[in-house]
Design a protein that fits this description.
- This protein has about 110 residues and is mainly beta.
- Helix content is about 0%, strand content about 50%.
- A six-stranded mixed sheet has the order 2-10-9-4-5-6, with no helix packed on it. A four-stranded antiparallel sheet has the order 1-3-8-7, with no helix packed on it.
- The chain is globular and about 40 Å long.
- The protein starts with a strand and ends with a strand.
């Protein structure tokens, strides 16, 4: 079955960096667009970055220029490099396929202190 396992979160000071990873199984990864999402307490989940199966990327305005999404098809892994982190980036981060947005994983907590 489909499984998405996120990792790499943690506590970091404002201005710091983190690199998130998401390993996928149960899908033909190389054919799928993949996205990173986040959900802060009391807020709706939002998509922050997407990469299609050709490597084209798109970002939410709030993270553009600071976050970079990438993928390794051989390892069935999608990454999110987050630089210049801000307290408002604090959230649980998830990966998923934008086409279906199901089988959510447990996510990985990112906390940015001011």
């Amino acid at each position: 079955q489909v499984q998405l396992v996120e990792s790499g979160g943690g506590l970091v000071q404002a201005g710091g960096s983190l690199r998130l990873s998401c390993v996928a199984s149960g899908i033909i990864f190389r054919l799928e667009a993949m996205g990173w999402y986040r959900q802060a307490p009391g807020k709706q989940r939002e998509r922050v970055a997407v990469i299609d199966n050709s490597g084209n990327t798109d970002y939410a305005d709030s993270v553009k220029g600071r976050f970079t999404i990438s993928r390794d098809n051989a390892k069935k892994t999608v990454f999110l490099q987050m630089n210049s982190l801000k307290p408002e980036d604090s959230a649980v981060y998830y990966c998923n396929r934008p086409a279906v947005e199901n089988h959510w994983g447990r996510g990985t907590q990112v906390t940015v202190s001011s």
